[in-house]
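FAQ: What does the model actually see?

It sees only this:
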Amino acid sequence: MKKNVLITGGSGFVGRHLTELLILRGYTVSILSRSKKQNKKDIYYFQWDVGNQTIEEEAVLRADYIVHLAGENIAGKRWTKKRKQAIIESRILSGQLLYSVLKKNNKKVAAFVSASAIGIYGAINGEEICTEETAAATDFLGLTCQRWESIDDYIENLGIRCVKLRTGLVLGKDEGLLNTLLPIFKKRLGSALGSGKQYMPWVHINDLCNAYLLSIENSEMDGSYNVAVNDNTTNASFSKTLAKVLGYRIWLPNVPAFIIRMFLGELSLLVLKGRRVSSDKIENLGFQFQYINLEEALTDCLK
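And it is asked to produce this:
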């Protein structure tokens, strides 16, 4: 019988790509959704309402593995007080709902794999290379990721292996970061932001999905893992490479930081600050990034 993977946030960018990979690898996939959807071959849909803490428990009870991706887009809107609360609650409440079903039914899945982000190390500029042992930051990004990951601690107490993947900027065709940048860069109006020196650890969507697959299949994986290419890409070099792939050289000056802050408010920290990270921990398990060259990764995303 095929193993079943329950994915929260399965209709999102990462969730859709991961679903395709899992089915190709012989799994069935269950997806939690706010609305009722028609099942497809090897894909089963179940309803949940995180705000009201309701869920079709069968989704959890039939699962062999759980991949928890659900959460409001952290870069979707300005960080108003209300928006910040929504970002945090979407991650905490969804995790708590899964925990309650697992505990209530004494359900043991083989692994609970949770999305996280390298934002746990904070919005910083500097040369320090952050590893999984680096202390979490106390700014909004750091605290959000800490609370996000805290759900794993509760689930781990149920005797379930937990893996947290701290992801860099995800590159994929017409989605994620590129979905925001391409309309500007295709008009040949792209440029670096602020100083342009802020680091931008990135990962191709295929590599990220393979990291989730490894987390499911490798029983030695446990705890936190950074998943980002450690090539010291900065905002300036990223912008230059994206323009090159699109067939031109950047000709505009950097967008001044004060303009970005004026339009984005506190959210500007996401683009004006950066961090260097190491993915040695997951690579030491034998994981290999297929895309380690930014130009090749962007070319693949845009073909």
